[in-house]
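Journal club prep, shared notes

We agreed each person brings one worked example of a sequence with its structure written out as tokens. Mine is DUF3137 domain-containing protein. I'm keeping it raw so we can talk through how to read the token line rather than staring at a rendered picture. Sequence first:
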Amino acid sequence: MVNQEELNFFHRDDKLKSEFEDLERQRLKIKFYDKGFIISLILFFSCFGVLFLLAITTQIIKASIIDIFFIAAPISVISFGIFFGLSIVKSGDFRKKYKEKIVKPIVTMIDDTWIYKPEEKITQKQYISSLLYEDRIDFYTGNDLIEGVIEQTDFKCSELVTQYEVKNTSKNKNWHTTFRGLFFHADFNKYFTAATFVRTRRNGIKVDKSFKVVELEDATFSKIFEVRSIDQVEARYILTPSIMEAIVKLYQYYQQPIDISFVGNRVYCAVSFSHSLFEPSSFIPVYDVDVIHEIYKVLYFNKAIIHELNLNTRIWMKGAITSS
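Then the structure, token by token:
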């Protein structure tokens, strides 16, 4: 799926190379600040640790040791504040430039008609419309919205994080993540009278028991995914052998849990990741081949799913699906 020639050209482009070098200098400064506040933090807790150990082992703390502590501790706190503040200030500008100089050109390289909005996201209404997750939403955030049309199929995707709050018996608050990853939806060119869900088999996913399990003949597909729907006939109509093969292919390629729903005339797809997808790290070079490859691979999902699910083949009229 990933075009290696395009990625090689991306690295060889002289204009991009100079922009990489500028970003790399900025990254190294932030890395210095990050190391500074980490070392300051270690020094601060080390002071407390040494003082505590001396207190419990000797029960006597010399005045000279106390003097050293009262000198080192404030210095480490002040250093931490300075380095942390500089890192926060510089990271904001670096992040903005990284999205503009690294992520956006990769989007354009895949398809120059796509629109990239780094500070926007899939709306909460669109997320809820997927019916993929039943958990209450107490926290909803995201970024890196991409929207476009591939041939005749419109789509949108963005990174999302959704969480809900749980209070335990001691009234402490805990946050549970419902979804973190890439959320995608597109026109499916068919209209569904009932919702159908395809979920990667794994623990911890809540399902509506009113949606009955659909048994399918594809053994490889059924081993990886569970299908539920109110309408068994419509579910089988949607999940043709070629569609099931395509979903398995996507799962094997991305090696991440994939949950799909077919609702109304839209297909919704949530690919779970445990990390941020398009955020720069001060500890990884901006021209790191693996990082750029990963960004390309994730963004290419938009084109891959539309092609693999054959969404551009409009041989059914919307509203044409009927159940016996």
